[in-house]
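Render this sequence as a predicted structure.
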Amino acid sequence: MDGNLITSGEYRYVQSSEEGTPLVLLHGLFGALSNFELLFDHFAGKMRVIIPMLPLYDMPLAQTGAKSLSKFVEGFINHMGLDKVHLLGNSLGGHVGLIYTRKHPDRVASLTLTASSGLYENAFGSTFPRREDKEFIRRKVGETFFDPSHATDELVDECFSIVNDRARVLRILAIAKSAIRHNMANDLPEMKQPTCLIWGRNDTITPPDVAEEFDRLFPDANLFWIDNCGHAPMMEHPEQFNSILSDWYKKRGILD
């Protein structure tokens, strides 16, 4: 998907078309466009699917955090001239979407969260991945999934490159700390957008009780489980994920 990146001003993104109901996908802290490839393909003929590249490593360190990423999303949506967007976020991307939605409730038609931070997350366990230890990083990447075979060489190489770049590591830690500080529990009851929660039953980073708490706090939410699934349901079980979301969109009158 990287080969289809569009650059417009300070923004880089991919999109399925220039018309249609906008579905904006927000990736996570170690995420990439490829995380959403099958979801993108599934909805491309039904909605205007757009994935902005979040500037995780490009902001000044003092400004790096979940709130700043939300401001970036605000600027991107304004730049694209979008209104009444359907937001979908995985992990940190869900948290960024939550902050944006809380600030701009009139601009968000629906919200979909999968393995989202915002209440509690166990991003790194008790240790940050050790530099120069590729097998350790392979195990840590594998913990993202129920089936560690999804930790492909490409994913491992990408994470290995990140954790061996001091500037990137500092920004990852700044974002992770800001996300922990920015707990959304008190905000969720005020967020009345239709909300779809899709969660892996075996997620160890944002465990099932996080999903249940989101479901309890949102005024209008539906929670769906995917068995044998970790922290990236749209990657590990893409057909089931896409089916759940399509059916939910149809029941909510978003898709025909």
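Summary. The first strand starts at residue 6 and ends at 8. The chain has a mean pLDDT of 89.
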